[in-house]
Amino acid sequence: MSILLGLLTGVAFGFVLQRGRVCFNSAFRDLRMMKDNFMFKAGLLAIAVQIIAFLAMSQLGLIHLNPKPLNLIGSIVGGYIFGLGMVLAGGCASGTTYRISEGNTTAWLAGLVYGIFAWATQSGFLSPLMKAISQFNITVAPNSALYLGEQTGPTLATMLNINPWIAGLVVAALLFAYLFGTKTTPRDTATWGWIKTGLLVVPVAMFGFWSSTISGRPYGLGITGGWINILKAIQTNELLNWEGAEVLGIMIGAGITAVIFKEFKLRVPKNGKTFLYVVAGGVLMGFGAVFAGGCNIGHFLTGIPQLAISSIVAGIFFILGNWTMVRILYGKS
């Protein structure tokens, strides 16, 4: 059942990613290079609506909020390194994964290297680094029955000792004020508008959190763990779990969508040096995602909507790392 639920989540997510061209690397890079906030706003809209959606689902007992422990070393260092890597790889965790199914050969290489180094960081030759920083994990006693367990990762609500609904509604209101109170960069070439893209991410994230919870993984959308699981399944015959099935589903969903809309095309870069950048990016992304406790999807589309401090910090350093590499490669100040 968990494999089926993960596949269903992934196929739906792959459709939205492919049609909406959802990639956080592009969102951050475009904001810095061209002052283009189109995709950045789509992501923030998804977060704002998910804040309310996750609270409502928790209130109804469909899920429990389960923010990850705060590890400042991991979130800052790992987040920054992941941000550097996504620029070199030409896509974030989600962008790389869905572009694999469009025939993008650099995405094939980036995804493979990303998965290998995530696995190596989690349980391979880089795992001593994870053990070294694990002693700095911070958890707190939850201040609401909406949270899972007797200890939880700190959130804005637990830090301020206020009801999660109050914190959530205030943050969501601030995001809505920015989203609809500021000018949005037009993008005539986009298949979907930023509002449609952001809103369509939400039901996928809601279904993902619910289906992942009943499958014994009470967290929601993520990609890094799925890549690790797929590689383990290939190498050791380990069974697919929910997240592995989700990542496989993303590739299936994006591939079917690309074929239907005639957007599948084998793409090979003209400059062979691009493959070197992609390998370096995959290495940094794989290490950074595990060190930070999650990739851009796990933090931006699951952790930040729970107002997790770990995800907010990691998210900030994803952006800073991205902007640093944009400066190095493209000379943008």
Automatic annotation (TrEMBL):
Source species, domain of life: Bacteria
Any one GO cellular component localisation term in the record: plasma membrane
Subcellular location: Cell inner membrane
Transmembrane helix keyword on record: yes
Segments passing through the bilayer: 38-57, 69-89, 162-181, 193-211, 247-264, 276-301, 307-330
Major place of residence: membrane
InterPro entries assigned to the protein according to its UniProt record, in alphabetical order: Sulf_transp_TsuA/YedE
Membrane topology, from the record: Multi-pass membrane protein
Annotated keywords: Cell inner membrane, Cell membrane, Membrane, Transmembrane, Transmembrane helix, Transport
Keyword check for tRNA-binding: no
Family in the record: Belongs to the TsuA/YedE (TC 9.B.102) family.
Name the record gives this protein: Transporter
